[in-house]
Amino acid sequence: KAGVTQTPRYLIKTRGQQVTLSCSPISGHRSVSWYQQTPGQGLQFLFEYFSETQRNKGNFPGRFSGRQFSNSRSEMNVSTLELGDSALYLCASSLGLAVSTDTQYFGPGTRLTVL
Amino acid sequence: GENVEQHPSTLSVQEGDSAVIKCTYSDSASNYFPWYKQELGKGPQLIIDIRSNVGEKKDQRIAVTLNKTAKHFSLHITETQPEDSAVYFCAASQSGNTPLVFGKGTRLSVIA
Q: What pLDDT digit, counting tens, does each position of A16-33 carry?
């Protein structure tokens, strides 16, 4: 079974630009979560989508947004990029149904550098 | 909200020795505790997880113990090998598909 895939793997942008990252979950998984990983703050939860609806949201500004399509693929968008947005953005997928037994599996991440 | 503390931040062991990483959590409602291993240039990979209805779980050289009363859980790696060198993260959540709250990570180096 193929794992979680994320594209692109690397991105370089300048301040003020916007960026869109993509995540394809494991086949059959309906929940997609996004995390930001930085050396200083570690792994922080951005948001989670299930059946095309945002089900959970972390403590990030409105410049960070996401969506999920009917095939469970997800995108996240960051507008008006700031230097501090440089990070590894990780996507994790899970079945999203069995609350007591579900497990999240991570993709390789997209490394975003803001200049 | 949940807060997860992880110690130590770095750990060096000789090949063949054991390694122990400890985490504490603050939210007594948390009942799912996964451990992830992250190698350079890769995303976190789940290596073992435990739920609050058990106190210990083992998978070959890896074991996790959970003390719900004290709100801490630990990862034990026995007979360490150079390929165990990586950053290890503990996490906690109220269920398998609710947001994970991560510890800051432990960089494990296994010296051959």
A: 999 999 999 999 999 999
Question: CA-nearest residue of chain A to B49?
Answer: A103
- Please answer yes or no on whether A43 and B102 come within 8 Å at the CB atom: yes
Quickly list DSSP for B49-72. EEETT-SEEEETTEEEEEETTTTE
Question: What are the pLDDT digits (tens) for A34-81?
Answer: 999 999 889 999 999 999 999 889 999 999 999 999 999 999 999 999
Q: CA-CA distances (angstroms) from residue B34 to A9, A13, A68, B52, B84?
A: 25, 34, 25, 11, 17
* Chain B residue with minimum CA distance to A38: B104
| B57: CB partners within 8 A, 6+ apart | B48, B49, B50, B63, B64
Spatial CB neighbours of A81, under 8 Å, sequence gap ≥ 6: A13, A14, A15, A16, A17, A18, A19, A114
* Interface contact A87, partner B, CB < 8 A: no
Nearest to A17 by CA among A82, A75, A65, A87: A82
Task: Give the Cα separation of A104 and B87 in Å (integer).
Answer: 18
- Report the largest interatomic distance among the alpha carbons of chain B, rounded to a whole angstrom: 41
B96 and B30 in contact (C-beta within 8 Å)?
A: no
